[in-house]
Write a structure and sequence with these properties.
This protein is of the alpha/beta class. It has two domains: about 280 residues, Rossmann fold; about 110 residues, Anticodon-binding domain of a subclass of class I aminoacyl-tRNA synthetases (Four Helix Bundle (Hemerythrin (Met), subunit A), Up-down Bundle). Helices cover about 45% and strands about 15% of the residues. The chain has 13 helices and 14 strands. Helix 9 packs across helix 10, helix 10 packs across helix 12 and helix 11 runs parallel beside helix 13. The longest helix is centred in the first third of the chain and has 19 residues. The protein is globular.
């Protein structure tokens, strides 16, 4: 599966600093100091109802991570998956009378278009669950053969008790885990499981549903969590720098994936930091596919909204915050974009070297994008209120906003 084209990231004078970011596993801020190549895995979409603002907010957060790392003169090895076969996708295709593969391909293509428009830097490896199946099957077999998985009516389940570190990503108690498991794709009430929280690794073929050859597992398809584990281990290995996604992935997805990987490799932890973006609401409720209260990036673009304004709307909220999308949020972003573009369109201006450092400082402190926007606002206000004579300043501001915030002025 191919990703989307990369926009050029302008080079800036000087060098950025190491990223300090909130880690869900330690429940505090840690400083990441990757080697020459920083490694990040971000969980991708299940391709239906793409791309809504909640998606865009999540991928915007991890795009900022990439930009901070690139500013330190590191390379970034970024991997993202597409869950292109899963129960919700099959259910949507059945509901709408569509072929599930056509639905997945169409929505993935739309997602690529939206990511391109929003200037999100693409992953080096963009992998679908279906194409990852040949690598998933051996991992499930290894877990089963090691006694960390068991069969139940042809399905294969992972035993959470096989990982002594289970629970150290989300820090939830058993009752909370059970409730979230039921809400987020698990089956805690299924009879015969060793532990209600045990997640499925391999689902035996069901009539009328797609299935693949699973070697000794029989025909079937992979569970949700093992998909990301196989892709991450294949392309990044253990101990990569960031495992990222929305806050609704902390449990069960990231918790279960970490346990799968840790049992498979005998190493801990799977990732140095587990980073989670907040949820976006609409009309007082979390934006979600099940509720249908979605605002789509593609619909905004068709309505003539500049993608740079959409990006500024996302950047105006801290990535870990839960917030609400409103017409006012978008209107403020459109107005900000106009002010910024007017300020950098002048032939000269106020010196901007200090501004570049302010943006850098804000972003390395847990991706404080609102703080970075406020710094640019201050420069713009001063630029509009006085005459400057630095001919290089407007261009430097444009390059900095592009390189560090992904907004083309």
């Amino acid at each position: 599966m191919h990703a989307w084209p990369a926009s050029e990231v302008p080079a800036l004078p000087g060098k950025g600093r190491d990223l300090k970011i909130h880690d869900s596993a330690t429940q505090g801020t840690i400083t990441l100091a990757p080697g020459p190549v920083a490694r990040i895995y971000v969980c991708g979409i299940t391709p239906y109802d793409a791309t809504h603002i909640g998606h865009a907010a999540t991928y915007n957060a991890f795009d900022l991570v990439q930009r901070v790392w690139l500013d330190t003169k590191r390379q970034v090895h970024y991997v993202q998956n597409v869950t292109d076969v899963d129960d919700p996708l099959l259910e949507r295709a059945l509901r709408d009378g569509q072929d599930w593969t056509e639905l997945a391909e169409r929505e993935t293509s739309l997602f690529r278009e939206d990511m391109t428009a929003l200037r999100m830097l693409p992953p080096q490896h963009y992998i679908g669950a279906v194409e990852a199946i040949p690598g998933i099957v051996p991992l499930v077999e290894r877990l089963r053969d090691a006694g960390a998985a068991y069969e139940l009516d042809g399905d294969i389940y992972f035993s959470v008790e096989s990982d002594p570190n289970f629970g150290q990503v989300s820090h939830l108690d058993a009752q909370a885990m059970r409730l979230l498991s039921a809400e987020r794709g698990g089956d805690p009430d299924r009879a015969g499981k060793k532990n209600p929280l045990d997640p499925m690794l391999w689902m035996a073929a069901r009539p009328g549903e797609p299935s693949w050859d699973g070697a000794s597992l029989g025909r079937g398809r992979p569970g949700w969590h093992i998909e990301c584990v196989a892709i991450a281990l294949d392309h990044l290995g253990m101990g990569f720098d960031i495992q990222g996604g929305g806050s609704d992935l902390a449990f069960p997805h990231h918790e279960m994936g970490a346990s799968h990987a840790q049992v498979l490799t005998g190493e801990f932890p799977m990732a140095k930091a587990y980073v989670h973006a907040g949820m976006v609401a609409l009309h007082g409720e979390k934006m979600s596919k099940s509720k249908g209260n979605l605002v789509f990036v593609s619909a905004l673009r068709r309505a003539g909204v500049d993608p740079a304004a959409i990006r500024l709307a996302l950047l105006s909220h801290h990535y870990r915050a839960d917030w609400e999308w409103t017409d006012e949020v978008l209107a403020e972003a459109v107005a900000r974009l106009e002010r910024w573009r007017a300020a950098v369109s002048r032939p000269d201006g106020l010196p901007a070297d200090a501004l570049v450092e302010e943006i850098r400082e804000a972003l390395v402190n847990d991706l404080d994008a609102p703080g970075a926007l406020a710094a640019v606002d201050r420069w713009v206000d001063a630029q509009n209120a006085s005459d400057g004579d630095d001919e290089s300043a407007p261009g430097l501001v444009s390059r900095a906003v592009d390189a560090l915030l992904g907004v083309a002025l």
